[in-house]
Design a protein that fits this description.
The protein has 110 residues and is of the alpha+beta class. Helix content is 35%, strand content 35%. The longest helix has 26 residues.
């Protein structure tokens, strides 16, 4: 895949994460602040000040996630972004990480 193709796909993923988490936060009554600077999405949990950072790594063609639980790398495999270590899916993993840090179930349709 070319870098341009990767960046187009990654942009769509970041947008989907933003939209999904905003909706999930409202439904679960979790105060989230999302900010985006280029290819970096910062998710702050206002009540406890913790953050999850999601960013794209074009040279590696990966999406990286940094959370309290650690750092995770996801690579496109067919139509899914899968963890390069354990094969977990990006959106399901993010929902679990955000739920743990936000203190309430944050799930959104994927």
């Amino acid at each position: 895949m070319s870098e341009t193709e990767f960046l187009t796909l990654a942009e769509a993923v970041l947008g989907r994460i933003e939209t999904g988490l905003e909706q999930a936060g409202e439904e679960a009554d979790v105060d989230l602040e999302l900010s985006r600077n280029g290819n970096v999405l910062e998710i702050e949990f206002v009540d406890n000040g913790s953050k999850i950072i999601v960013n794209t790594q074009a040279p590696m063609q990966e999406i990286w996630v940094a959370a309290r639980a650690g750092g995770f790398h996801y690579r496109l495999n067919g139509k899914e972004w899968l963890n390069t270590r354990d094969g977990s899916e990006l959106f399901a993993s993010l929902a679990a990480l955000a739920s743990a840090q936000g203190g309430a179930a944050l799930n959104w349709p994927v």
